[in-house]
């Protein structure tokens, strides 16, 4: 969700795209839904809570079996609890692969 005080070069684009996050040692994964994307960040609804500051590799699946998923290194910048143990995160895109 965009706020009036946010200064952006590009607006957030609404999305409902499946994502997979991979992080930690030993490696862990979480499934979620990308709810919006901008030039420098992602909004993601996840199946469980992930700590602020966690760096993750994210794969954004577009639903087409013949295409490569969008992949990036992200950092979790904020979290917001959702019902049933889920959470919404704001993530900064550090690098696109």
Low-confidence stretches: none
* CATH fold assignment: Thrombin, subunit H
Secondary-structure element pattern, one letter each: EEEEEE
Q: What would CATH call the architecture?
A: Beta Barrel
Q: CATH class, anyone?
A: Mainly Beta
- Percent strand equals over 45%
Supply the number of structural domains.
1
Average pLDDT confidence is 86
Q: Give the strand order, joined by hyphens, for the main sheet.
A: 1-2-3-6-5-4
Q: What is the gyration radius calculated from CA atoms?
A: 13 Å
Give the % helix: under 10%
Estimated structural class? mainly beta
Number of strands: 6
Biggest pleated-sheet summary: 6 strands, antiparallel, barrel
Give the topology, please.
Layout: E1 13-23, E2 28-37, E3 41-46, E4 55-60, E5 70-81, E6 87-96
Antiparallel strand pairs: 1-2, 1-4, 2-3, 3-6, 4-5, 5-6
What can you tell me about this protein's structure?
- The chain is mainly β and 97 residues long.
- It has one domain (13-96): Thrombin, subunit H (Beta Barrel).
- It has no helices and 6 strands.
- The protein has strands spanning 13-23, 28-37, 41-46, 55-60, 70-81, 87-96.
- A 6-stranded antiparallel β-barrel has the order 1-2-3-6-5-4.
- Strand 5 and strand 6 form a beta hairpin.
- It is globular, with a radius of gyration of 13 Å.
- The two termini are 25 Å apart.
């Amino acid at each position: 969700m965009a706020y009036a005080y946010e200064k952006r070069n590009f607006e957030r684009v609404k999305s409902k795209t499946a994502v997979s996050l991979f992080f930690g040692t030993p490696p862990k994964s979480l499934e979620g839904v990308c709810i919006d994307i901008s030039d420098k960040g992602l909004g993601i609804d996840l199946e469980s809570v992930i700590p602020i500051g966690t760096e993750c590799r994210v794969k954004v699946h577009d639903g087409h079996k013949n295409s490569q998923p969008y992949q990036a290194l992200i950092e979790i910048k904020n979290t917001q609890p959702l019902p049933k143990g889920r959470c919404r995160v704001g993530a900064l895109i550090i690098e696109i692969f």
